[in-house]
Design brief:
This protein has about 300 residues and is α/β, with parallel strands linked by helices. It has eight helices and ten strands. The strands form two sheets. A six-stranded mixed beta sheet has the order 6-7-8-3-9-10, with helices on both faces.
């Protein structure tokens, strides 16, 4: 488990000073979730104690029906706990109104879903901008930050394309850019490689690991052990209870291929090698197509990550 991390920023590295206190991103105590159907109660989470510190990379595994999706929804503020205590980046979630929870979700959590959740009528750049639209960021700033985020994942030349015009791996890279454009405290990834091939999966996991190595806290939900091996901590859940919480070194077969995320020299689907000349992407970048700068959004102004969970 790393003893030092970078501060949680997307675009630059700034290690925490030696001896500095590492912040807690997630703190759960005795968390329970009970669903009711008529007179029948289903106990989906049972007395969950769970802590994640800044810079952790945690994989959560469990069989179907184990409660891992429920736990993800609680962590992501997509569902409310029945009892217990949950603190996200210093905020007591139980004290928040629905509006405050939505604001906190937008500011503190970046979501990456198996099904990408990109809006098909928008370009890749416009999709990455969406969290900033909901956060009321100015048009100029959100365009600059979205383009910088796409550059980080090697897709700036694809900014004007729509999701149907790119591959599954490129859609998931766009989703990662969208998740991190707000510089959240937590990247929450739910089966991020479930809908892409093995080569694209390697690229996606290398990107996630690279951002983690620069300070982004990651919680990954997966049923694939080879994907969980990228993390440095594995939590097993069964029947709503955490049954195992183990620290381990990243698999050498995986970690040897991890590179700091940068824009590839050639914008292909398979090139993510580190180029020091590209390591500091500029936030002053401007769109390649000036016609894009005045685009309008037809999306319903709600958190796009909520769409598949409502």
């Amino acid at each position: 488990m790393p003893t030092t991390t970078g501060t949680q920023q997307l675009y630059q590295d700034a290690p925490i000073a030696a001896g500095a206190e590492i912040q807690t991103t997630i703190r759960m105590r005795q968390v329970n979730k009970i669903y009711h159907s008529g007179k029948i109660a289903f106990h989906a989470l049972k007395d969950v104690d769970f802590t994640v510190t800044q810079g952790d990379f945690v994989a959560i595994m469990g069989p179907s029906g184990s409660g891992k999706s429920t736990l993800m929804n609680i962590i992501g503020l997509l569902d409310e706990l029945t009892s217990g205590y949950y603190e996200l980046n210093g905020h007591n979630v139980g004290d928040l109104s629905d509006d405050d929870r939505a604001f906190l979700r937008n500011q503190e959590i970046g979501f990456v879903f198996q099904s990408f959740n990109l809006l098909p009528q928008l370009t890749l750049l416009e999709n990455v901008e969406l969290p900033l639209v909901y956060a009321a960021v100015s048009q100029r700033e959100r365009r600059e930050r979205a383009l910088a985020a796409l550059t980080e994942v090697g897709l700036d030349r694809w900014q004007g394309h729509r999701p149907v015009e790119v591959s599954g791996g490129q859609m998931q890279r766009t989703a990662i850019a969208r998740a991190l454009v707000t510089r959240p405290a937590l990247l929450l990834a739910d089966e991020p490689t479930g809908n892409i091939d093995s080569q694209a999966s390697l690229e996606i996991m290398n990107l996630i690991c690279g951002f983690n190595q620069r300070g982004t806290t990651v919680v990954l939900i997966t049923h694939e052990k080879d994907i969980a091996n990228y993390a440095n901590r594995l939590i097993m859940i069964r029947d709503g209870r955490l049954t195992e919480d183990a620290l381990y070194e990243r698999s050498p077969a995986n970690s040897s291929s991890i590179a700091t995320p940068t824009a590839p020299a050639a914008h292909s689907e398979v090139s993510h090698s580190h180029n020091p000349a590209n390591s500091g992407s500029s936030l002053a970048a401007t769109p390649a197509n000036p016609a894009d700068s005045g685009s309008s959004f037809a999306a319903n102004p709600a958190n796009p990550t909520e769409v598949s969970h409502v």
